[in-house]
Design goal:
The chain is of the alpha/beta class and about 525 residues long. It has 20 helices and ten strands. The chain has three domains: about 1-165, Tetratricopeptide repeat domain (Serine Threonine Protein Phosphatase 5, Tetratricopeptide repeat, Alpha Horseshoe); about 185-285 and about 495-525, no CATH class; about 295-460, Glycogen Phosphorylase B (Rossmann fold). The strands form two sheets. It has a six-stranded parallel beta sheet with strand order 7-6-5-8-9-10. Strand 8 (about 395-400), helix 19 and strand 9 form a beta-alpha-beta unit.
């Protein structure tokens, strides 16, 4: 939540040209980070032990994504003089992002004690408590932030996430409507018309739905499209070309468009993520008819034949995805490297099918697990291809990405490996999901404890018994390229560092190419 790491409010124009800290503050607040960096470097040249300059250098390091450096600088600023409350508040947020929750709590509580009128300090505490899976404490801190600044969008969104995490959907959906007011989130539409739909029937007019947020969000909330279609005379939907194969299944006959200039006139509009509120969804009334997405039979036949050529004739076929979109606000916590899946990759009696897209596919070049691994990622042109392959699998194992949503919406057994601070939609403690009856959730007991989750998944695949250690004569198998024959070649194990970054071919956040759908801490969740 980068908007909660801030310098103090910019001062008026500096009284002297050499007031580089004030200039850096003004540039940082305006988003001119290079200019701010240049100013703070000049300030540090003159006064290397100035606590304000050192702390501002930490803020700029954070803005540039250098979190460890930011921590070092901010911690140092605390040693150079009396700690200003906003030093503590900012450090709280960065400790949280690094998973150092106890330290974050200490400095966060010190921040609100030092300045009990700082709403951002309380908001940072609220976000921290959410990450610690303590929604009641998160709600308390958010309420205190809003008592100081009732219009604070982040405070309202913190209430929304905590209530939704608890399954308290009524007030949660109401506060969730504030998500488009968060700092840095662009408007949903390029203009304010037509008005937001109130959920009442439109008997003689057109309703426009907008497939907002990430691909996973569109798949999850797409289940409400038939409900909305029954309440209007005609339906049009703004969605990306990537989502068209999915959305078209849920809205037969609806007009789909991906550029605002092609937008038909409508009487009202609504984002897909706003439909649960209008529907009045609670835990007992989630539309969970599974499956509500289906693969094209011809595509299924084509891909089934392809898999039959590549996969060994026996054993279970398990689709895997280990990384999501790197620009996702929680990607550092939700994505892993392929090598982390070693306990799964070393199982007998399974064939792994990579559904991974983007640069993480290159990690397959260093794969030498016992289980054959078929890399179909480069051949997945659309979600229609992905659905057709999933149809031929026995199980999909994934981190929290759109592929998990896609598989679950198809009714395929889907095991999702969650980060400790998971998204609200997966609720608390549950191993199942009211959104997807065929989903099984695997949770961490603490921050970044992926090993325990992956080990549990491997045990479950193996019938809850740990696979026997490989014999000395066993030779692990290399990945099977899409052009290879039926049997994967043997290879000597090879060590290698894998990259974790991931970029997909197009942006899930851009439902309309010339008018991006909002990104930000709140709205964009899954891809």
């Amino acid at each position: 939540m980068s908007d909660t790491v801030e310098a103090p409010a910019p001062a008026p124009a500096p009284a002297a040209e050499d007031d580089f800290i004030a200039l850096a503050t003004q540039h940082e607040q305006a988003g001119r980070l290079e200019e701010a960096q240049a100013c703070i470097e000049r300030a540090l040249e003159k006064s290397p032990d100035d606590a304000r300059a050192v702390h501002m250098a930490g803020v700029l390091a954070f803005r540039a994504g250098r979190r460890e450096e930011a921590v070092r600088l901010m911690e140092r600023s605390l040693t150079l003089g009396p700690a200003k409350p906003y030093y503590l508040r900012n450090l709280c947020e960065i400790y949280r992002l690094l998973g150092r929750y106890d330290e974050a709590l200490n400095v966060g509580e010190a921040a609100v004690k030092s300045d009990p009128r700082d709403p951002i300090a309380f908001l940072n505490l609220s976000v921290l408590h959410y990450a610690r899976r303590d929604p009641e404490a998160s709600l308390d801190a958010a309420r205190k932030a809003l008592a100081i600044d009732p219009q604070m969008p982040g405070g309202h969104f913190a209430l929304a996430e905590a209530w939704l995490l608890q399954g308290n959907f009524g007030p949660g959906w109401e506060e969730y409507e504030r998500r488009f007011r968060l700092k840095g989130v662009p408007k949903l539409m390029p203009k304010d018309e037509p008005p937001l739909w109130d959920g009442k029937p439109i008997t003689n007019g057109r309703l426009m739905l907008i497939a907002d947020q990430g691909f996973g969000d569109c798949i999850q909330f797409g289940r409400y499209i038939p409900w909305a279609a029954r309440r209007c005379g005609e339906l049009v939907i703004a969605c990306s070309r990537e989502m068209a194969p999915v959305i078209s299944q849920l809205a037969p006959g609806a007009v789909l468009f991906d550029r605002w200039e092609d937008c038909p006139e409508s009487l009202a509009h609504c984002p897909l993520s706003g439909l649960p509120r209008l529907h009045g969804t609670n835990l007992a009334t989630i539309p969970a008819e599974i499956s509500y997405l289906h693969a094209d039979p011809k595509a299924v036949a084509t891909w089934a034949e392809r898999l039959g050529q590549l996969a060994p004739p026996r054993g279970r076929r398990i689709g895997i995805v280990w990384a999501g979109r790197p620009t996702h606000n929680n990607d550092a916590n939700r994505s892993i490297a392929l090598k982390a899946l070693a306990p799964i990759c070393d199982l007998d009696g399974v064939t792994l099918v990579s559904l991974q897209k983007g640069p993480p596919q290159t990690q397959i070049g260093d794969y030498f697990g016992r289980a054959p691994l078929i890399n179909l990622g480069p051949e997945l042109a659309t979600f229609a291809d992905t659905m057709a392959i999933i149809d031929s699998l026995d199980l999909v194992v994934s981190v929290d990405t759109s592929v998990a949503h896609l598989s679950a919406a198809m009714g395929k057994p889907t095991w999702i490996m969650l980060p400790h601070a998971c998204d609200w939609r997966w609720l608390l403690e549950r191993t199942d999901s009211p959104w997807y009856p065929t989903v099984r959730l695997f949770r961490q007991s603490g921050h970044h404890r992926w090993a325990e989750v992956i080990s549990t998944v491997a045990d479950a695949i193996a019938g809850r018994e740990r696979p026997s250690p490989p014999q000395a004569s066993s030779r692990p198998r290399a990945a099977v390229p899409a052009s290879a024959g039926v049997k994967p070649p043997s290879a000597t194990p090879a060590a290698g560092g894998q990259k974790r970054s991931r970029l997909l071919s197009s942006s899930a956040a851009s439902a309309l190419r010339d008018a991006p759908v909002p990104l930000g801490r709140g709205p964009s969740r899954t891809r």
